[in-house]
Amino acid sequence: MCAAPSRCPTSFVFHVAAEVVVAPPFVYLDAVRKALRPEIEVAGQNCHTEKSGAFTGEVRLGLSQLCGVLGRLLKHSDQLPMLTDAFLLSWIVDLQVNWVILGHSERRLYFGETDELVGKKTASALSAGLKVIACIGETREEREKNETNDVVFRQLKGIAANIQNWKDVVIAYEPVWAIGTGVVATPAQAQEVHKDIRKWLVDNVSQNVSDETRIIYGGEHTL
């Protein structure tokens, strides 16, 4: 993301039919959304399962009240209120932000997010009208033990147990061993897992969901 949202480039030229989504830190969501061209979407990096309540530090799916003033308040940090979750999940929706990333490997690793919790977050986000990029993927140790499919299928099961409509879900295969490590998953490795994900969706959800759900790769890459 751009360090200074006001100077984010707005003249990208895309040569393929693609949907582009940028996911800045939540305090910059409004600024980045306004700086980018309308066809470039913005996503939250996380959200909470509940639409109300006191969950300090979490991002609730309805925080519109603060968005307009947050940028100005950041210039006067002594005026910043304590941001509890009572302010934070509907923000994403009311900001006209249409996407949220859930289940990122760092959320699972550092914050102990379980497959069940990621599934519940996915259901909450979808019910709020958001599109979800749901992240799944194995660690290096799990891959070396040939446990990739076991891990990925378990994570998919956590999502499938909580939702019925997959229309607004994008699955991001995010091998943990290819994030910030300098190691790059080959196209063949990524495609193999993508194929297995589609097969799991056929067997456990439906052929239609398998055919229509988008699956992307998230991790290190080379150009």
Automatic annotation (TrEMBL):
InterPro entries registered for this protein in UniProt: Aldolase_TIM (IPR013785), TIM_sf (IPR035990), Triosephosphate_isomerase (IPR000652), Triosephosphate_isomerase_AS (IPR020861)
GO cellular component: cytosol
Pathway noted in the entry: Carbohydrate biosynthesis; gluconeogenesis; Carbohydrate degradation; glycolysis; D-glyceraldehyde 3-phosphate from glycerone phosphate: step 1/1
Source species, domain of life: Eukaryota
Catalytic reactions of this protein: D-glyceraldehyde 3-phosphate = dihydroxyacetone phosphate
The protein's Enzyme Commission number: 5.3.1.1
Subunit description: Homodimer.
Record-stated family: Belongs to the triosephosphate isomerase family.
Protein name: Triosephosphate isomerase
Organism, as annotated: Olpidium bornovanus
